[in-house]
């Protein structure tokens, strides 16, 4: 979205928060990117239908107050259809980043809304090869865009000498994970590793979501440091010896393509991962990530990596691979598809009716996202 904000206004609608207040839209502008972030603030005690109605009203008001008339509707979740039925976008994009219906607590309406979104969408983007294979037959224009990475941001970790205070006191080696801690994590795997290698420090960054914190493995060498700002992640990565991707193999991880994989690599970390399909191919096949199927294999892989320095060609191979998957490249390719689709729709409009003043304005392409 930061790339789109260079030449369009971008209005990002977040999940609602609940406070003791009348419904309103809390708005701010990201000073670094220009993305306009809008958070619906709703009172406590509303029914689900009331929540949906309030969100829809706030969305309609936002469009009116900002004179948004020619725009692209960009969906990260099919559930957003329930608050946006009144919209009439120039183009609809479904950016499918996960199989959300497989997550714990997924709404029963998720699959129905996704079917409706496939019908409505002009373009569908998928965040990994597994998702692409799953969705490609459901729409006539599905495109694969695997996880990208801000190389300049994360590669700073390679030169940072002094890390954050809350991990600086921990002895080495340090094995870290950054991301949401939820049902996708293999908690038994972490417990086994911590027990088998008490001298290893396991550092976990991120919020605990949808699972009982009491179920988390606890040990003197497991450290839950909480959620960290994006800009601070390179500092944390700079103090790790290995990046971990300790995922369970279940329905919620069947289609994931973790963004942390290229971020760890950009930071110069060696990585050990569970055999998630979109990590095995291509990272495992190229030798950029070690793949381990259980705790014993994780330990053996980490032991091997810790035994000596990385191969002299490792970072060169990483940098070459990541040069092909930057966010700038992803944005450029997405934008080309969007502009082509807008142009086609405008040509079709011209062919079916006289070119009115409104149509001439529309022919310039949607100006907002």
Describe the structure in your own words:
There is one protein chain. By secondary structure, this protein is an alpha/beta fold. It has 2 domains: 4-148 and 327-362, Rossmann fold (3-Layer(aba) Sandwich); 151-322, 3-Layer(aba) Sandwich (Rossmann fold). Helices cover 34% and strands 17% of the residues. It contains 13 helices and 14 strands. It has a 6-stranded parallel sheet with strand order 11-10-9-12-13-14, sandwiched between helices. The protein is globular and about 70 Å long.
Short description:
This protein has 369 residues and is α/β, with parallel strands linked by helices. It contains 13 helices and 14 strands.
| Major sheet details | 6 strands, parallel
- Helix-strand topology string: EEEEHEEHEHEHHEHEEHEHEHEHHHH
The domain count comes to 2
Helix-residue proportion: 25-40%
Rg from Cα: 23 Å
At CATH's second level, what is the architecture of the largest domain?
A: 3-Layer(aba) Sandwich
Strand order of the largest sheet: 11-10-9-12-13-14
Overall mean pLDDT score?
92
CATH topological fold name of the largest domain: Rossmann fold
What class would the helix/strand composition place it in?
Answer: alpha/beta
What separation lies between the terminal Cα atoms?
A: 9 Å
Count of runs of 4 or more consecutive helical residues: 13
Estimated share of beta-strand residues: 15-25%
